[in-house]
Amino acid sequence: MSAEVTFLPAGKTIKVRPGTTLLDAARQAGIAVRTRCDGNAACFMCKMEVKPGSELMPIGDVERRKLAGMEDGIRLSCQARVKGKVQAEIPMDPLRAAVLRQLAKQAEEDDKLW
Q1: Quick one: fold of 3-113?
Q2: Is the pLDDT of residue 72 over 90?
Q3: Any idea where the 2Fe-2S ferredoxin-type domain is (predicted)?
């Protein structure tokens, strides 16, 4: 039996064995996910938004404590294990997001000049 993970916004889908972490699935799919703690639930950099209806194994105590107070649907990809069909959205890298915001702002200012 295999499970299936679709990573958004890339739309890339990969089949994995049940029990595979979202982080390992992303790596197998060739999708870069930033981490600093090598998957030990310490850095929070691998957070993903798991879409409703996604089939993951129950959240563990460590992840539950780490995510206390965060929005529903946020999971640590190094801890969240795939059970069936999953859709997970990888947030944009903060540096890339800042660059894109700046470029959009500059384009808007350029439009005002012309």
Answers
A1: Ubiquitin-like (UB roll) (3.10.20)
A2: no
A3: 3-96
Q: Are 45 and 95 in contact (CB under 8 A)?
A: no
The structure's pTM equals 0.80
Q: Say if residues 51 and 40 touch (Cβ distance below 8 Å).
A: no
28, 11 contact by CB (below 8 A): no
H-helix or E-strand spanning residue 31? none
Instruction: For residue 14, report the phi and psi dihedrals to the nearest 5 degrees.
Output: -140, 145
- Residue 111 has φ and ψ, to the nearest 5°, of -65, -35
Lookup result for tokens 């539950």: 64
Lowest-confidence region among 6-15, 44-53, 80-89, 95-104: 95-104
* 3 state SS of 63: helix
What is the C-alpha separation between 62 and 52, in angstroms, rounded?
22
